[in-house]
Structure formats: C-alpha cells, structure tokens
Design goal:
Chain A is mostly helical. Chain A has 7 helices and no strands. By secondary structure, chain B is mostly helical. Chain B has 10 helices and no strands. The chains are: A mainly alpha, B mainly alpha.
C-alpha cells in the first residue's frame, strides 16, 4: 500500500467508512511506516478538536427577522402590483374619456394649407391623408358619441369594482397573517 | 399532527406561518454552517437570513424527492462560498497585501472578540472553562479560515452538520469520490497547520 492511499483510508476511517478488511490493511501499513503513524496521530488530534467544538446557538431574533423581511418584501410586491394596475387602469380610462377630444384634434384641415405651402410634397400628401383619416374618425366619433360616453361610464364602473375587489383581497391576506 | 412535508406544501402555497415553522426547525443547522464558513456571528446571521429568504422565493423549484435539509444547506453553502470568494477579492487589493499579512495578530484578536459574542450550546458555569472554550473556538475558526471555500464547506458539513459523504456531494454538487478526496486534503492541511501550534496538537 502506498502512503497516499493510506492517507485517504485514514480519512475514511475517521468518518466510519472503512470496512474491517481495509482497517486491517491500513493497520498493517501503519505498523511499518513511521511517517504514516505520525500523520495518523495528527489526523486523530484534529478529529478530536473538531468533534469537541459544539454547535452554536442561533440568535433568538433570527426567525423573527426572517419573517419580518418576508412580510416587508410581500408588502412591497403587492404595492408594486397594485400601483401598476391602478396606473394602467387610469391610463385606459383616460384614453376612453378623452377619445372624442383626441379624434377631434386629428381634424387638421384648418392647419394643413400652411404646412402644404412650406413643406415638401410628401409631407403635404401625408398631412392630407391624416386629415382625411381624422375627418373620417371625427364623423365616426360624432356618430358613436353616445355609445362612447356609455362605454366610458361602464369602464369607470368596472375599474371601481376591480379596485374594491383588490382592496378586499389585500385586507383578507393581511387578516390571515 | 402537521409534519415537515405539510409545512413545505403550505409554505409553497404562500403560507408564511408554515414557512416560519421550517425556519424554526432548520435555523440551527443553517446558522452553524454559516458561522463555521464565515467565521463570525454577524455575517453568519445575515447569511442565515438570506438563505431562508432565498429558500422561500425558490420554494416552487424544490423537489420533494430531495431532503429539505440538503436543499437548504445547499443554498446556504453556495451563498457562503460566494461571499468568501468576494471577500477574498475585496479584502486583498495588491497594495494592502503586505499590510494585511503583517497584521495577522490583529485579525486573530478581532475574530476572538467575535467568537466571544456567540453563545455556545454547552454552556459551562466555570469561567476558566468558558475562556478555554472561547480560545478553542477562535483557534478552530482560524484553522478553517486557511481552507478554500469549498473544502471549508465540506469539513463544516461533515463535522457540524453530521452529513454523510452522499449528502455533502448533493449539497455541494460534487461526486462522492470528490468529497472523499476533498475531506482528506482539507484534513491534511488542517492537521499540518495544527502541528505547528503546540496548544492543541496531539
């Protein structure tokens, strides 16, 4: 047996992973090798030292701090989700409410002539096209003004209902903890 | 009676109090691993907290076929190994290397004062025994500090978490034979360092 192999076996012996046949082999080697005897003594001394070192007690506040950090993180996450939903809802609502006004702005017929005289032909064509589209949309908007207003009110009601549901859910989650 | 599998299932469903039970059950092994890896109580506490937060966040990726303890210790080991590697980079800029090398006695005394702050589970009323125990603690932490982060993790898992070779291999993503040779190499290095010091050798 080589000394390097004996060294690995010593380590395995300390961990209780050496069968009796191998222990006998190692003991034979140790009996005739003073270098390995010295190493075995060193490893045993180290083993005794490490085994004698007790487990340390974690601070009592550890669990409390983990739980506090978890709930802070959850609250922050809920706040982000809530505010994002609220912001998106507000934008959607604003778009719906302002739709007739925005469509009105697209009617650029009054401004177009001045731009056409100064700008290149492509810009003029683009503006004419935009103007035509705007007028068409305006006609549509005028025609559907009542349904659009109705839709705005409906979406406002839906947004308010969703908001109430969300607040209720957050309260229930808080109450559960 | 609620068992561990139920706590894990409930925690996965978002039940924080069930996760609190798991923290209670595993805080000692996780904290001890972090303490032996990082060498001081303050960093160990931060590492243990971080381990549990990461565990909670990644609870859905936990495979119930695996031992929960191994999974937690794996998170803790990798966190501590990363921390030790970063510490090595940030603590030893070139111009400070000589100063730090000459300042090893100061580092030892600061680690002793850190050790003095921790509470040992085998509380002894005898003041002399307490002092001896603290000195031994500081000595062990100094010995461990000489190992590479992964060897240090292997030794810590073996001695303070009572892990088998298979569990160490699973925790550190190594093969069983790699664990065996790492433990041997680490022990040999520790024993050689120890031989130079008369107090604890033989």
């Amino acid at each position: 047996m080589r000394c390097e192999q004996a060294g690995e076996m010593m380590s395995a012996w300390l961990d209780g992973r050496l069968d009796s046949a191998k222990i006998a082999l190692l003991e034979d080697h140790l009996a005739g090798c003073s270098a390995c005897q010295a190493e075995w003594r060193r490893l045993q001394a180290l083993d005794r030292l490490l085994i004698s070192a007790p487990m340390v007690r974690p601070p009592v506040r550890l669990r409390v701090q983990v739980m506090a950090r978890l709930s802070r993180r959850d609250q922050a996450r809920r706040a982000i989700i809530g505010s994002t939903a609220l912001a998106l809802g507000t934008v959607a609502l604003a778009l719906l409410v302002l739709a007739p006004a925005l469509l009105g702005l697209l009617d650029v017929t009054g401004v177009a002539p001045a731009l056409i005289s100064g700008g290149p032909a492509t810009v003029a064509q683009l503006l004419t096209f935009t103007g035509a589209m705007g007028r068409a949309l305006l006609v549509l908007a005028e025609r559907f003004a009542a349904p659009l207003a109705c839709l705005s009110l409906c979406s406002l009601a839906v947004a308010l209902a969703l908001n109430r549901l969300w607040v209720g859910a957050v309260r229930r989650v808080r109450a559960a903890h | 009676m609620t068992n561990e599998a139920d706590w894990i299932r409930m925690a996965r469903a978002g039940d924080q109090s069930a996760f609190g039970r798991l923290v209670m059950a595993y805080q000692t092994p996780v904290y001890n691993l972090a303490y032996r890896m990082l060498g001081n109580a303050a960093e160990a506490e931060e590492a243990a907290q971080e381990t549990f937060l990461r565990a909670y966040t990644n609870l859905r990726s936990y495979d119930p076929q695996r031992r929960f303890r191994s999974w937690l210790l794996s998170i803790a080991s990798h966190y501590c190994i990363d921390r030790l590697r970063r510490r090595r980079i940030t603590w030893l800029p070139l111009e400070d290397e000589i100063a730090v090398a000459g300042d090893s006695t100061n580092r030892l005394s600061s680690s002793q004062s850190e050790v003095a702050k921790i509470s040992l589970t085998s509380g002894s009323p005898n003041p002399e025994a307490v002092v001896a125990e603290r000195e031994r603690e500081a000595y062990i932490q100094r010995l461990l500090a000489g190992l590479s982060p992964t060897d240090r993790a292997a030794i810590t898992l073996r001695y303070w978490n009572d892990c088998s070779y298979e569990e160490i291999a699973e925790t550190l993503n190594l093969t069983v034979s790699a664990v065996k040779s790492r433990l041997h190499r680490a022990r040999r290095a520790l024993a050689e360092t120890m031989e130079g010091e008369t107090d604890y050798a033989l």
